[in-house]
Amino acid sequence: MNINLTLIGQSIAFAIFVWFCVKFVWPPITAAMEARQKKIADGLSAADRASLDLELAQEKAANELRTAKEEAAALIDQANKRAAQIVEASKDDARKEGEKLIEQARAEIQQERVQARDALRNEVAALAVAGAEKILETSVDGKAHSEMLEKLAAEL
């Protein structure tokens, strides 16, 4: 066999093999590689979008948390102010009630003083009449001398 003929045969067989690979084997391999590249690119872009969405969600959650804390602080402050107002109103009511009770007690004391003074006048008048009867050793008529007794009671 001749080396030239073998070399030509091998060259023809190699060319047929290359043509066969380019025609039937290479397109599915490149299609699979392109599909894989597209899938990887899509996965990377989805990961980037997910990362961006995560950052936005974290910022939104932080803002919501901050807003909730501010609202809670405002509500607590408002409740404290309302509690202070209620306490002050209760103090004012208690003070007014105390003053009212004191005024009632003073009025009762004044009334009792007047009653005691009147009772004392009546007793002094009765004692004066009894003393005058003993001094005069006659009976003093209350009806006849009522004007004098009233004058005496008024002076006492």
SSE arrangement:
Layout: H1 3-136, H2 146-155
Pfam families: ATP-synt_B
Transmembrane segments: 6-26
Family: Belongs to the ATPase B chain family.
Describe this structure in words.
There is one protein chain. The protein has 156 residues and is an all-alpha fold. It has one domain. 92% of the residues lie in helices and 0% in strands. The protein is built from two helices and no strands. The protein has helices at 3-136, 146-155. α1 (3-136) crosses α2 (146-155). The longest helix has 134 residues, at 3-136. It is rod-shaped. The chain starts with a helix and ends with a helix.
Task: Give the gist of this structure.
This protein is mainly α and 156 residues long. 92% of the residues lie in helices and 0% in strands.
List keywords for this structure.
rod-shaped; mainly alpha; 0% strand; 156 residues
Q: How do the helices and strands follow one another from N- to C-terminus?
A: HH
The tally of strands reads: 0
Poorly predicted tracts of residues: none
Rg over CA atoms? 61 Å
Give the structural class. Answer: mainly alpha
Number of domains: 1
Tell me about the largest β-sheet: none
